[in-house]
């Protein structure tokens, strides 16, 4: 408790979260930020999930803020469960369990490729969602990035169709804009995005999450800016 009070004293702009059962929305944050980003560089966002079973599919250009946003959700949830204040003006959540598929790596000693390690992490997540314990909040960064485009899209669609409606809520960051069509067939899947602009020959990001699929991409822009060939013809 003393450690939590010291942390609160050192961060007077933080607030203590509300973790409670049986209320809707099941997850709601206002002006949430990442505790490890310096205050002068930090952008705060609002987000809300109304009910269990929902999946937030987050698209956007490189460096636009997708991965940082889902990590922001995860680290603040960890702070909340540790009894500390969170980097948010208000924070309400069900008592979720937390599962992440973010910093996955291969293993020379175990003989696991990156893709196989990712498959095992996603299978573990599916098992957790199928259990009878308290609901799960899960974070996935670039689903099935370890395989080719065609099989990644097929596998990702099948996986998201399966987890949508299960006992949890999901935040999934992806570059695969083709996945955004899932929201048209399943009301449990919602699209959100981060975007970029080109100003005076440089990329500019506002790191603000918005509803809908991403309208921009920037991989070829970055390649051209750094002197790499990126001819689309």
Brief write-up:
By secondary structure, this protein is α/β, with parallel strands linked by helices. The protein contains six helices and twelve strands.
Describe this structure in words.
It is a single chain. With 233 residues, the chain is α/β, with parallel strands linked by helices. It has one domain: P-loop containing nucleotide triphosphate hydrolases (Rossmann fold, 3-Layer(aba) Sandwich), CATH 3.40.50.300. It has 6 helices and 12 strands. Helix 3 (114-130) links the parallel strand 6 (97-101) and strand 7. The chain is globular and about 55 Å long.
Give the key terms.
6 helices; alpha/beta; four-stranded mixed β-sheet; globular; Rossmann fold
H/I helix tally: 6
Q: Averaged pLDDT, please?
A: 88
Spatial strand order of the main sheet: 6-7-8-4-9-12
What name does the CATH topology carry? Rossmann fold
Low-pLDDT residue intervals, each spanning 5 or more residues: none
Order of helices and strands: HEEEEHEEHEHEHEEEEH
Q: Write the CATH architecture name.
A: 3-Layer(aba) Sandwich
Whole-number radius of gyration?
A: 19 Å
What is the number of strand segments?
12
Pairing-aware structural class of the strands and helices?
alpha/beta
Helix proportion: 25-40%
Largest sheet: 6 strands, mixed
CATH class division = Alpha Beta
Number of domains: 1
Draw up the topology in text:
Layout: H1 2-10, E1 18-19, E2 27-32, E3 45-49, E4 55-60, H2 66-81, E5 90-93, E6 97-101, H3 114-130, E7 136-141, H4 149-163, E8 168-173, H5 182-185, E9 189-194, E10 196-199, E11 202-205, E12 210-211, H6 219-225
Parallel strand pairs: 1-5, 4-8, 4-9, 6-7, 7-8
Antiparallel strand pairs: 2-3, 2-5, 9-12, 10-11
